[in-house]
From TrEMBL:
InterPro entries: Malate_synth_C_sf, Malate_synth_sf, Malate_synthase_TIM, Malate_synthG, MS_C, MS_N, MS_N_TIM-barrel_dom, MSG_insertion
Cysteine sulfenic acid (-SOH), modified sites: C608
GO annotations of cellular component type: cytosol
Domain Malate synthase N-terminal span(s) in chain numbering: 16-72
Residues reported in the UniProt entry to bind acetyl-CoA: V118, R125, Y126, S268, R305, P531
Catalytic residues identified in the record: R332 (proton acceptor), D622 (proton donor)
Annotated glyoxylate binding sites: R332, E422, G447, F448, L449, D450
Broad class of enzyme this protein falls into: transferase
Keyword terms: Cytoplasm, Glyoxylate bypass, Magnesium, Metal-binding, Oxidation, Transferase, Tricarboxylic acid cycle
Protein's UniProt name: Malate synthase G
Length: 715
């Protein structure tokens, strides 16, 4: 039982009080009393409205369920369905043309397309790695992965594989920075004369791509190039084991990689109480103050990891040039749904966690706003806001941050909002959602997994859905992805805000990523999510090949490619002539993914990790992947494609598979043969109670079961 501390009418866990008053507030100019009084005012003024928005979600869902039930044995009438959604206020009029008014947006968002990382803020090592992933070695990325078709042979450095890496890097340099009459593969000397880069005394075909150098201009330590806004550094060192065997002394090719990184307080973490929230907030504070460190053991040695410092160059005109070495950091708050026991209101009810995140993460970011050379050079705070349903909920988020700024004395619109287009009610009303945040929006994106989970839940009563692989091939997904970009461009996001695309979920499959993920910049997206710093470096190659702003110009001239009708094309199974083996395979695949993720979430508090799938391929899993799998099985259960007994049999069978996959983890608690652990019960809840979960979200079940486990351990 927590002995809470009363603060302006709020009942607060002492661990949160200690963090706020002892660490977060000192240095901001905000007094303890002013903070808690403002927090209480937010809870009183906005709490009921928050609940009303959630009630609206449920009311609309009930009406949609009833419509589908009434029309279940009839051919789907698309026009009647659309008219019905308009009648109940789900599908809103689009409104007149407008452009966003967001200002003071940092160049990493507004001007330079590139990769974006998403990492759990509760893991300090991952957070530091992501922040420092602004630059990465192309040599390392190509050598240590399957990017060129295979990984290096076991043992020490393989000269043959290394030679292929060097050759591949030279091809990239020829493509991005061609030399007049020479290939980089044949170059012997890079030097600077009269403000120009010369390679064997020959100039670049585009001399303006030379951005600077370090060291002696006659024999630079490094040469800085730039293409499509992204920098590339050629590192020269004839004492290096690579440079010593290179005719030009080129030891490495370093790419500007993760331009931005989302420090995630939501889907990739397991924060269920004050202890967890303080860990998350504490790491965010360290990033914003610039003093976060983590002791890391690697290769038998221990060292301290900290944020990288800026690097100085000499510009072509001889002036000083300093480049940031850290990704621009955004913070993802939780959505409007969940509450958290860290703070209770005057009636003893848990406060909405989204309000808590809004105030506390912005308060923490004030440390960055007050220091030179920090995260934002334009004095902005970037908050990604997930799981909003339609423009009313976006407008509520805007009012929340209005209030935060008033409490903290910040200029209006200091806080910029990222709108995640991952719920259908947002997708079909995207233009109005952007309008609701037109002075704050700095980011929109698409996320296939959450978006599919919401699609299944919203249309649960319409019938059984296709198998997951076939859902991706239906027309609605293309309409959703294209319309997001088209509307973003119509609303003036080009040059002011990001248009983003989703995650590459297979961190060990870089060759496939290089083949496929180029489609994201080709789609007109400024950024796309990657699962690791190495993936960011390799994905950066795509932004050198594709001029995203040129693509966006063509798209703007061509008009909209997709409309609401396409998005409302529900991806139901058409024929449903599945064999028993196909049904069993689909259910077992879903069950294995759910169990592999949930067992780590519940037992270890790990919200995102690389989880082996049913074929032992490592996939990045978070709550979005769990949501689609749980909702898919719940849908098939509801429509009698499978029975509860069959699903339970699949869960038990896959529990044994997951146990095997984790057999080498000494901290792992097996689920089989008892199947009576809290983690296994949580997975069962997600499936068997999936139809009645709010919007099909996994959070209510996961939070309750994690708290149950922590309570059983006396935590």
């Amino acid at each position: 039982m927590v002995n809470r501390i009363e603060k302006s009418g709020l009942q607060v866990d002492p661990r949160l009080v200690d963090f706020i008053e002892g660490q977060a507030l000192p240095g901001t100019g905000i007094s303890d009393d002013a903070f808690w009084a403002g927090f209480d005012r937010m809870v009183q003024d906005l709490g009921q409205e928050n609940q009303a928005l959630l009630d609206t979600r449920e009311a609309l869902q009930s009406k949609i369920d009833a419509w589908h039930i009434a029309h279940r044995d009839q051919p789907h009438d698309h026009e009647a369905y659309t008219a019905f959604l308009q009648e109940i206020g789900y599908l809103l009029p689009e409104g007149d043309a407008f452009e966003i008014e967001t200002d003071n947006v940092d160049p990493e968002i507004a001007q330079v397309p590139g990769p974006q990382l998403v990492v759990p803020i509760t893991n300090a090592r991952y957070a530091l790695n992501a922040a420092n992933a602004r630059w990465g070695s192309l040599y390392d990325g190509l050598y240590g992965t399957d990017a060129m078709g295979s990984t290096p042979p076991a043992g020490g450095y393989n000269k043959g594989h290394g030679a292929r890496v060097v050759a591949r890097a030279r091809v990239f340099l020829d493509e991005a920075f061609p030399i007049e009459g020479l290939s980089h593969a044949d170059a012997r000397r890079y030097h600077v004369r009269d403000g120009a880069l010369l390679v064997d005394d020959l100039p670049l075909m585009q001399p303006e791509k030379f951005a600077g150098y370090r060291g002696n201009p006659k024999a630079p330590d490094a040469v800085l190039l730039v293409n499509h806004g992204l920098h590339v550094e050629l590192v020269f060192d004839r004492a290096h084991f690579i440079g010593s065997h290179d005719q030009a002394g080129l030891a490495d090719v370093r790419l500007e990689s993760a331009m931005s990184a989302i420090m995630d307080c939501e889907d990739s973490v397991a924060c269920v109480d004050a202890e967890d929230k303080v860990q998350a907030y504490g790491n965010w504070l360290g990033l914003m103050k610039g003093d976060l460190t983590e002791e890391v053991a690697k290769g038998g040695q221990s060292f301290t990891r900290r944020l990288n410092t800026d690097v100085a160059y000499v510009a072509p005109d001889g002036s000083d040039l300093t480049l940031k070495t850290r990704a621009l950091m955004l913070v993802r708050n939780v959505g409007h749904l969940m509450t958290n026991p860290a703070v209770l209101d005057a009636d003893g009810k848990e406060v909405f966690e989204g309000l808590m995140d809004a105030l506390i993460t912005t308060t923490i970011a004030m440390h960055d706003l007050q220091r030179a050379g920090g995260n934002s050079v334009h004095g902005s705070v970037y908050v990604v806001k997930p799981k909003m349903h339609g423009p009313e909920e976006v407008a509520f988020a805007v009012r929340s941050f209005d209030m935060v700024e008033d409490i903290l004395g910040l200029p209006r619109n200091t806080v910029k909002i990222g709108i995640m287009d991952e719920e259908r009610r947002t997708s079909v009303n995207l233009k109005q959602c952007i309008r609701a945040a037109k002075s704050r929006v700095a980011f929109i994106n698409t996320g296939f997994l959450d978006r599919t989970g919401d699609e299944i839940h919203t249309s649960m009563e319409a019938g059984p859905f296709s198998r997951k692989d076939f859902i991706k091939r239906k027309g609605w997904i293309g309409a959703y992805e294209n319309r997001n970009v088209d509307i973003g461009l119509e609303c003036g996001l080009q040059g002011r805000a990001q248009i983003g695309k989703g995650m590459w979920a297979m961190p060990d499959m870089m060759n496939a990523m290089l083949e496929q993920k180029i489609e994201h910049p080709k789609s007109g997206a400024n950024c796309a999510w990657v699962p690791s710093p190495t993936a960011a470096t390799l994905h950066a190659l795509h932004y050198h090949k594709v001029n995203v702003f040129a693509v966006q110009d063509k798209l703007r001239a061509g008009g909209r490619r997709a409309h609401v009708d396409g998005i409302l094309d529900i991806p139901l199974a058409t024929f449903r002539k599945w064999t028993p083996a196909q049904i069993a395979n689909e259910v077992e695949n879903n069950a294995q993914g759910i169990l592999g993720y949930v067992v780590r979430w519940i037992d270890h508090g790990v919200g995102c990790s690389k989880v082996p799938d049913i074929h032992d391929v490592g996939l990045m899993e978070d709550r979005a992947t769990c949501r689609i799998s749980a909702q898919h099985v719940a849908n098939w259960l509801h429509h009698d494609i499978v029975t509860e007994a069959q699903v339970m049999q699949a869960l038990q069978k896959m529990a044994a598979v997951v146990d095997r996959q984790n057999a080498n983890d000494p901290t792992y608690t097996p689920m089989a043969p008892g199947f009576d652990g809290i983690a296994f019960q949580a997975a069962c809840d997600l499936v068997f109670k999936g139809r009645v979960q709010p919007s099909g979200y996994t959070e209510p079940v996961l939070h309750a079961r994690r708290l149950e486990l922590k309570s059983s351990l006396g935590a």
